[in-house]
Task: structure prediction
Amino acid sequence: MNNTPLKVDYDLIIVGGAISGGVMAALLGQSDLKIGIVESRVHDPKKPDPRVFAITRASEQIFRSAGIWDDLLADPIGHFREMEVCDANGSGSIHFDSKSLCEPTLGYIIGNQQIQTALVKVIDAQKNVSWLCPEKVDQIEIHTDHAEVFLDSGKRLKTKLIVGADGANSRIRDLVGIESKLHDYQQTAVVCSVKSQIAHNDVARQRFLTSGPLAFLPLADPHVCSIVWSTTPDHAQNLLDSSPEGFHKELELAFDSKLGAVLETSQRFSFPLNRAHAKNYVSNRIALIGDAAHRVHPLAGQGANLGILDAATLAEVLLKNTNTDIGRYALLRKYERQRKGENLSVIAAMDGFKHLFGSTLDPVQWLRNFGMDLTNSCSPAKSLIMRKAMGLTGDLPELARTPHFL
Result:
């Protein structure tokens, strides 16, 4: 028997250097694993990026573990201590407050550009991590004891494990033939930043309209929020095409002028909304994380957090097994078992909320408003909802926990 150790170029190759892939690389940066990150785009910290993410307390702890939290705090970030949810087609509402849990905040609103810049800084300082950028994966080959990655540039790399963190249209998922079920919500999200007459007071607000939810997410500036307006594709196009004045008036009307007049808005962007879930998260020498494995409706802001938890869970499995073959299927299944059920429960909940608040049937409207008011009056129920949404409960990896979460 040949006992010569297998020579590989990398112990693992992460395809995709955005948030999920970047977090995983940062978490593994102090290990003995040799890591390569294949990324098609060179990060430009000055490039405008309208995307912001609602970051949970669990994701905050993972960012701390990854070594990027202090860098994120170097620039002002948004946070929300309270959250208000209301129904435009009724009087039902729910109010959440971090004080009731003796927590300083429910979560944070942080720009994608800020997170990416902090991740690049940390990763660049790690001696065991290398960027392969700009590069794209052309083909892969899976063997019994290793995998090979063929890049468009002609490079051929040998590795023990390939991590697909390459987004919704994952090349890795397609190359290994993992099925992903897609559901089109027939909605489009319009996003931009909004300066309002009335200060947001660190309150995240969401108003459910018939066409979809409208969220105002508080940024560091007390009068500026990032909005996510989920609506029909035709209406979204009208919003994109309208004049600033017309858009301001329609936004004020849709939000019931809860923050007074809209004074300014940034450039508007849009993206289609859909739900997807991969049949499998892993196969031999392959693991999918983030949007490559699943996508959810943004109405609760959980999409990025699910990907961050994927990255932390897989990183934790690998860190506990660095002296073994990290690409073997039996080991990767530990990651899949921990994350798949959790992600499916969130997907089901988001679908349920979408259908519940999208219904125009009178009995359903009455029932949801009654349910919102009942929940609002029940402190134990609200506490359970808040703790789950904040990432303080559930099957969390150790990297997502702080001592008082345990």
In short: The first strand starts at residue 10 and ends at 15. Residues 56 and 107 are 5 Å apart (CA to CA). Residues 10-78+106-182+274-405 form a domain with the FAD/NAD(P)-binding domain fold (CATH 3.50.50.60).
